[in-house]
What we know:
Largest sheet: 6 strands, parallel
Order of helices and strands: EHEHEHEEHEH
Radius of gyration: 15 Å
Strand order of the largest sheet: 1-6-5-2-4-3
Low-confidence stretches: 155-160
Number of helices: 5
Amino acid sequence: VFGQLDYRAVLPGDGEDPDVAIARAAARKLQEDRTAGLEHRLMVRSATKTRAQELHRLYTERTGLALNVVTGDHSLRHLRTTVEKLRAGELDGIVCVDMLGEGFDFPHLKVAALHSPHRSLAVTLQFIGRFARTNAANMGAATFFALASDMEIERVKLYDEGATWE
């Protein structure tokens, strides 16, 4: 049911905007996967609607990828149209704000760009697990990109919660 999942820590260069660094890394990976003949798509995760619009502009201007924004404010028609375009390959991916979560199955989403990790590691892990599905043909490994500092903070929180890990 679940395949390989690779985490790629993004370390922006001196003076480089962290969002641009994540966007470029995710776009490069998407292109590599497609060059290898894989039908992968990208999901960009944001915490707010305003931020989603900013990231949409950034990806359009800096990567040239065709993305749609999906938020809870959009109509069901917009959501269905976006998913249809994603499936047809008319879109390279989506920018979402807590959408297409539980119950949404689109195994071609294989590249994730976390510009805003979830408030808890458990929800972040659930989100990332969505990309490791293997129930479709022509699937490679899933990859997610996030700032190294964001993931380190979450890892520390996980172990500070006093959970027992065996």
